[in-house]
Write a structure and sequence with these properties.
Elements lengths: L1 H14 L17 E4 L3 E3 L6 E6 L17 E2 L1 E5 L2 E3 L8 E5 L6 E5 L3 E4 L7 E4 L1 E3 L1 H4 L1 H13 L2 H16 L4 H18 L7 H21 L2 H10 L5 H14 L4 H18 L4 H9 L3 H6 L6 H14 L6 H8 L4 H16 L1 E2 L2 H12 L15 H4 L10 H35 L9 H6 L3 H22 L5 H13 L2 H16 L7 H9 L8 H16 L2 H20 L10 H20 L4 H10 L3 H27 L5 H19 L1 E2 H11 L3 H5 L5 H16 L8 H7 L1
Parallel strand pairs: 2-11
Antiparallel strand pairs: 1-3, 3-7, 4-9, 5-6, 5-8, 9-10, 12-13
Subcellular location: Cell membrane
Membrane topology: Multi-pass membrane protein
Keywords: Cell membrane, Membrane, Transmembrane, Transmembrane helix
Length: 722
């Protein structure tokens, strides 16, 4: 009875309801904190920056909040290797930055960063953390696969894919998609960039190839080679001329690589200089010359790194003078330039380069059979067979336009930028910048200038060949297109190399940060020049970039050397250990970039010289390692203990000469021994062992043949013995 009464009451109340019951959702309060952190974090490696913002209930920034966070989970601040409490907020913002110069590092220690987790409005953000060994995997795979399969394109693609898979949380398919639509494509279009430097490099590389194509097809290259042949009758002369031209084009490494390689390639081909040797000559006089030239596009960057670091340490002075004082401490680029001259002048080689030179002399194979030729205009165009008239001006006009307009363009863009900066400095009450050659080059736009000048030079080549009636206009345009198309493979390698560098940069796998954290330790200041050289060499080799290596290591190395000199009361800006450290960073960055298969200057040198890229890298590394070893043993080690570089530089040069004289051998003599022994090109190229043992056996067999007691020995038996 009671249950029936209760049911009637419920039914009556429902029938009496005049309006539906509205659903009132629970309103979730916004988080108190907004956390901005890198998407990818390497375990036990400091991150560049973490920003925490305090928010109001409406989501706006709470500028009145200037307190300490009560509790932060997953974030640590270390100053001078000591775990330190986080500072308070400032106007609602807490910025935690890693500063290697001040030995301040920010670590993310868990997969989730939480601020005040015990409060209802706590803030949190998830981060993806990976092992530091995984960050070393892409560049390591690129080098191993390149040597194993002897195919640089396959090695670079696999390296990018592996890095993309790591960044995609191990998803193989998503890594493949990101390889193409993120890393490769972004290197071309550069989303968010206003300079479009990569596209400019791609375009001026194509335009330079177009210029060379028209010069070759129009007979200008053949005429230039014929004229140069009057002054250089030996292979050594052609190599010395290439070295000298590399010294003349000192203002930019890109211009040096492309101009010197493409200009000297037909001439060195006639002299039977292998493409690997030409690429070595070009690559060794590009970045080294630009890096030590007192006036170049590199100077401003190098001085800027020195000035910023010195200013952060409270040291004032003339930073350009410090830059000049550090030049004698650049042992590697200085001794490399001298070594290149010795190799070109003496004519001795060793290692894989000796085999490449012997192949070119004995069998006329400038490129190893079966290898990619990354920049080659059609064979008939190379000798000017298309041309009705072979005129020297068909080569000199485009080259003069390229060099002349490049210098004018650098001056023009640099002057405009200086005038703009001076207007801002006047408004701020600062001293105006002087319009001199150094400042102009420092503030110029070399990529934009090279883009425009290479296009105009290619048009000048078309006009010259057309007006001189060396080629009809239609054939000039066809040669222009063929020359541009010949650079496709080089551009593909260049884009893939950029993509590998992006995968390894600070925003992704942070490979350079891992190497710095693993290899940098506090030692005696006497060892700092050597340590910085070796560290810079490893970082630049892994990343393929000398500029990013300098930007990363200059603050760290200079600050570390400074901190070691302060207790000794020797913290002078121009102290020999400070200068040795600066020279070690800048020289080591060039050395690693010089050897790295993913370096843009290495790719461009291969392209301009018409060499297979991997063959260029493998033949160049023994020479680079030789010079680096001499630079360490007779440069950075003794200079750390007080020896003057003016004494060490000649000593290193003598050591390099002795290495070439006693260890190197003449490729012409080796080629003669092979031919006299009856070794065919197929037999020579089928050998997989090092060239030195082969050459020794060839020479010994030749001597045995000449002294043999059995004059009836057949040529087949002679080849079998070899």
């Amino acid at each position: 009875m009671a249950a029936t009464h209760s049911l009637l009451i419920i039914i009556t109340s429902l029938l009496g309801q005049t309006a539906p019951i509205a659903e009132v959702p629970l309103k979730q309060e916004p988080a108190r904190y907004e956390i901005e952190a890198p998407n990818v974090v390497v375990i036990d490696i400091p991150v560049s920056q973490v920003t925490i913002r305090a928010l109001n209930l409406d989501g706006s920034l709470d500028t009145n909040f200037s307190e300490h966070p009560q509790k932060v989970v997953g974030l640590e601040l270390w100053v001078h290797e000591v775990d330190t409490a986080l500072p308070p907020f400032k106007n609602g913002v807490l910025e935690l930055k890693t500063d290697l110069a001040e030995n301040r590092k920010v670590y993310i220690t868990s997969d989730i960063i939480r601020v005040d987790p015990d409060q209802r409005r706590s803030g949190a953000v998830e981060v993806y953390r990976i092992s530091k060994w995984l960050s070393l995997l892409p560049p390591l795979i690129a080098v191993i696969l390149a040597i194993w399969f002897r195919n640089i394109i396959l090695a670079l693609l696999v390296s990018i894919w592996v890095g993309a898979v790591i960044l995609s949380h191990g998803n193989l398919f998503l890594g493949f998609v990101h390889t193409l639509d993120t890393f490769v494509i972004h290197e071309i279009v550069e989303p968010g960039s206003t300079s479009y430097s990569h596209m400019m490099i791609i375009m001026f590389t194509m335009f330079l190839g177009a210029m060379v194509g028209v010069m070759s097809a129009g007979g200008g290259t053949a005429a230039l080679v014929n004229r140069l042949s009057r002054y250089a009758s030996k292979r050594e002369h052609s190599q010395v001329m290439t070295w000298f031209l590399g010294l003349i084009v000192f203002f930019d490494d890109y211009a040096n690589s492309l101009l010197v390689g493409s200009s000297m390639r037909p001439f060195t081909d006639r002299m039977k200089v292998s493409r690997e040797k030409l690429a070595f000559l070009v690559d060794s006089t590009a970045a080294p010359v630009s890096g030590i030239a007192i006036i170049s596009t590199w100077v401003g960057v190098e001085i800027g790194y020195i000035a910023d670091t010195y200013a952060s340490l409270g040291m004032t002075g003339d930073y350009y003078t410090t830059f000049l004082y550090s030049l004698p401490y650049r042992f590697y680029p200085l001794q490399l330039l001298a070594f290149v001259w010795l190799v070109a002048y003496i004519g001795n080689d060793f290692g894989p380069m000796l085999k490449a030179e012997t192949r070119a002399i004995a069998y006329g194979q400038l490129v190893r059979p079966g290898r990619f030729n990354v920049a080659e205009v059609e064979g008939h165009a190379e000798s000017g067979e298309l041309a009705r008239r072979q005129l020297l001006r068909n080569a000199l006009v485009p080259l003069a336009v390229l060099l002349g307009l490049a210098m004018i363009g650098l001056w023009w863009t640099g002057t405009i930028e200086i005038n703009r900066l001076n207007m801002e400095r006047v408004q701020l009450g600062q001293a105006e910048l002087k319009v001199n050659f150094q400042n102009v080059l420092e503030h110029s736009s070399p990529n934009r200038v090279l883009l425009i000048t290479s296009f105009l030079a290619s048009i000048a080549a078309v006009v010259s060949c057309s007006l001189s009636k060396s080629l009809p206009l239609s054939e000039c345009v066809e040669a222009w297109a063929n020359g541009a198309k010949s650079m496709f493979l080089a551009i593909l390698i260049l884009v893939l190399a950029w993509a590998v560098a992006t995968v390894c940069d600070q925003e992704h796998l942070n490979t350079a940060g891992v190497l710095v954290e693993l290899l940098s330790e506090k030692l005696s200041p006497n060892w700092m020049p050597t340590i910085t050289f070796l560290l810079a060499a490893v970082v630049s080799f892994a990343t393929g970039s000398s500029w990013s290596t300098m930007g990363l290591l200059m603050p760290l190395s200079i600050s570390l050397t400074y901190s070691l000199l302060v207790p000794l009361n020797e913290a002078d800006p121009n102290h020999h250990l400070m200068l040795g450290t600066i020279g070690g960073v800048l020289a080591g960055a060039i050395f690693g970039d010089h050897c790295s298969p993913i370096s843009d200057t290495t790719v461009l040198s291969s392209a301009a010289s018409g060499s297979d890229h991997l063959d260029h890298v493998l033949t160049q590394i023994p020479y680079a390692l030789t010079v680096a070893g001499v630079s360490v043993l007779f440069g950075y080690l003794p200079v750390g203990f007080g020896f003057q570089p003016y004494i060490l530089l000649p000593v290193g040069l003598v050591v390099l000469f002795l290495i070439l004289f006693f260890y190197g051998r003449s490729a012409e003599a080796e080629a003669k021994a092979l031919l006299e022994a009856g070794v065919t090109a197929e037999e020579f190229n089928s050998r997989d062992n090092g060239s030195e043992e082969e050459m020794e056996s060839a020479g010994e067999s030749d001597q045995t043949d000449s002294d043999s007691e059995d004059p009836s020995e057949s040529p087949e038996e002679s080849r079998e013995e070899v």
